[in-house]
Write a structure and sequence with these properties.
The chain has one domain (about 25-160). It has helices spanning about 1-20, 35-45, 55-75, 75-80, 85-90, 100-105, 115-120, 125-130; strands at about 20-30, 30-35, 90-95, 110, 135-140, 145-150, 150-160. Helix 2 crosses helix 3. The longest helix has 21 residues, at about 55-75. A hairpin with a 3-residue loop joins strand 5 and strand 6. The model has no long low-confidence stretch (mean pLDDT about 90). The strands form two sheets. Strands 1-7-6-5-4 form a five-stranded antiparallel sheet. Strands 2-3 form a two-stranded antiparallel sheet. The chain contains eight helices and seven strands; from the N terminus they run H-E-E-H-H-H-H-E-H-E-H-H-E-E-E. Helices cover about 50% and strands about 25% of the residues. By secondary structure, it is an alpha+beta fold. It is flat and about 70 Å long.
Length: about 160
């Protein structure tokens, strides 16, 4: 009888602790993932480990070269407010173009222009996102970027994580 009580106690404790260890991120944002965040996530998924210092430095050097080349070819962007997001933070922001997003984050995992699918991705944020969402691009860690034509109009993130959101 005592062992049964211990087993039940251990089960209850396990359920409580596992419930505390899960976090859900459900947010709407004007600034989204960084190039390095998406690259690291993809690297981890593809290699089963995080990148080394030299691999990270190689990525940073490659990103520097790509951003410099993009700004050289697009001087109007080099003189816009978006240049800080491209050069320094390398973070996607509302107002960026599809080309800028692809430069920073690469190709999306998924793309859709189906309103029902976008509603599912946006969840509780759909009433706010809907008026300007004609297309959605999905990236790792639960990020979804919404476009109206060529411009990012909104971003949402829905992500369940264990211990580290």
């Amino acid at each position: 009888m005592r062992s049964f009580g211990l087993a039940v106690g251990a089960l209850v404790l396990g359920i409580v602790l596992s419930g505390c260890a899960f976090f859900t991120i459900d947010q709407r944002a004007t600034e989204g993932p960084t190039a390095q965040d998406v690259w690291k996530e993809r690297f981890q998924l593809g290699n089963g480990r995080g990148p080394s210092f030299s691999e990270t430095q190689g990525f940073e050097d490659q990103m520097d070269a790509q951003v410099q080349e993009f700004l050289r070819k697009n001087p109007e962007v080099a003189n816009s407010y978006r240049v800080t997001n491209l050069r320094l933070s390398r973070q996607v922001a509302v107002g960026m173009t599809k080309e800028e997003v692809t430069l920073l984050l690469g190709k999306p995992q998924d793309m859709t222009d189906d309103a029902a699918r976008m509603e599912g991705l946006a969840r509780r944020w759909w009433p706010t996102v809907k008026p300007n969402a004609k297309e959605a691009w999905v990236y790792p860690a639960g990020w979804t970027l919404y476009f109206d034509g060529n411009t990012v109009t909104d971003m949402t993130r829905y992500h369940r994580a264990f211990l580290h959101p």
